[in-house]
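In full, the data.
>
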Amino acid sequence: MQRGLIAGLLIVTALSSTAHAMKDTNASAEAGEEVYRSNCLNCHGSKGKGEGPIAASLTPTPADLTNPKIQKKEDKDLLSIINNGKAGTSMPAWKNDLSSQKILDVLAYLRTFRK
């Protein structure tokens, strides 16, 4: 019984630490808006609908970031796309151009596009 209790406490502690770490990323939607306007707006547009100034020239057209299907994706999945780009699209990898903090900030800003 004591082993089960200790194992249970370890699991709860690990889960609490992970949740706490995710909350402590200090991601800023305000800072992310600046990153978005500098790097994402030309393709995704000012409102994230995939209608930026160069969107029509891209095949396929950029993702509509307000789409519930995209907004339902987990943070880790969106972070992977931002970091590594998306094959078969014009979405580039940003991991070599933006700091981890700026990528977290832009994700926080993308979450403001939820309907």
